[in-house]
Amino acid sequence: MTIKILIIDDDPDLVLAARMPLEQAGYEVFSAGTLEEGLAAVDTIKPDLIILDVMMDTHTAGFQLAQKLHGAGAKPEHQAIPILMVTAVHQTTPLRFSPDDDYLPVDAFIDKPIDPKTLLAQVSTLLQKT
Amino acid sequence: MFTTTQSPIVSSTNERGLRPTRDELCQNIQLLIQLRWAAGLGILSVTAFARYALDIRLQTAALMLIGVAVLLYNSLLSLTCRGDTNARQVERAAWGQMILDWGAMAALVHFTGGITSPALIYFVIHAALAGTVLLPWQARSLAVLATAIVIGIALTEREGILPHVAIPEFEMSGTLYQNGTYITGVVFFFGTAILTLSELVTRIAQRLRQREERIRQLYEARSTFLRVATHELRAPLGAGLSLMHNIQQGYAGEFTPEQGDILDRVTRRLEGLRTLIDDLLTLAASQEVTAAHVPLEPVGVCPILDRIVEREMPNAERKNIQLTCDKSTDAGVVMAGDVGLGIILGNLLNNAIKYTPEGGRVNVKYRLNRPAQRIEITVSDSGIGIPADDMPRLFDEFFRARNTKTLQVTGTGIGLSTVRTLLDRYHGHITIESEEGKGTTVHVTLPLALRYTLSDG
After folding, report:
1. For residue A89, which of A25, B69, B77, B171 sits 20 to 30 Å off, Cα-Cα?
2. Does the interface predicted TM-score (ipTM) exceed 0.90?
3. H or E stretch including B365?
4. Shortest Cα–Cα distance, A67 to chain B (Å)
């Protein structure tokens, strides 16, 4: 059974950049462009992993979605899906997000621009944990 | 995606004027309270001196009473700007102070000769001071009220309704206060002086407030602009580079060596642009951090150092650089900014790695120098070093030494000027030793915040 990955990101170029290596690695890739589409897709597609962009059309869309899926009061079937968050906060900026259960309930981070090798490694690590 | 909006900037004078902020009010009120202590004591001491040393016949009892009253209500007023009072309460207290002062001044003028009193001049000065703590309409009203009080005292004394209190040594003939021409003359000069001065001061205070407000708005507009602009600039770069990486790593099919070379060149230029944008954001963030209104707070150095080293480790590994960190202790708190300290350490470590070729070494040493009451951080590398000629200009904004081109290092050279600005704010020091071709050592010291630093345990 092929592993399903859902990419939630409003930038079609980033979706493509993530889709290419993932599909070549044998995953089945779906994508959604907004918070609402993303939430609906989680229920219809039932992915094994979610790749989420930290900022979509609004400042906090990514965070909001992470809270909805993993935060307090989230459905257990949602909580079980690992989330890989794509951030734009580059290395030289001192602010650095790290997975923090209280604030940002995601399982791992990856910086933009996406390095395909790193992406595949992160995805495989997260999937192995489940 | 974000849309940028224009921030409104104050461009025309509002008739009613800007309200003073609570902080501005409190500052000015504190000044007035201090002046009032001097005034109260002055009244008492000058009265005593004039009466007992110069034998001038004054209404000593009345004047002493006024002085004591001033001191009394001043001590009540010094409770005005406590933490829990809001701006409206402080405004009302300011207004109340002025009214009390007007009463004291009226009494003072009456008991020192009414229209012949030398104290009239202080009334004028006081009206000017009022312009700094009151709203324009209040200041103007008080100026008019003062004039009315003086006219009232002059006329009631002249008509005998109010007994004239003369200072015999001043008024030899004792009838000046009944002289209509004299009264008119003094009232005219007093009135024009007080109204003009109070108007002037009010206008100056208003202009100051408007300038402060404009500066605040500009700051805000600039931060917003920088934040939005850098995000907008980063997003397309992030997307573009992500796709480039895909092609280069073979996920979009085969390409010829020539195409591969072009891809490398394009990627390198885009990476350079990305570094530039990140440096600009760092600069903007640091200027925000160094803005005067951001207070310093106690910050633990070690956690930040650990975080920065962890963050830069992948960069070092990518170039096979051995990155080591020696810490003699885990304590050490300085008065600084959390973000600012991260910027300083990040810049130094980032530079060390950037300007060290493959296979080199970078070492970070941290030491708590208790006798000297400071923490010392040393970042040393085995990199390309800095030419002696370039050393003096190292801290100039955007300066990059000549030999950096040899490493094809991308970077804008913003780092060190930012670092120095921040260190100045934190009362720290930085010195750099370097030998071209051998390496560079950067020493940073920061004074300990003794109250917050725990002893080694």
Report:
1. A25
2. no
3. strand B361-369
4. 21
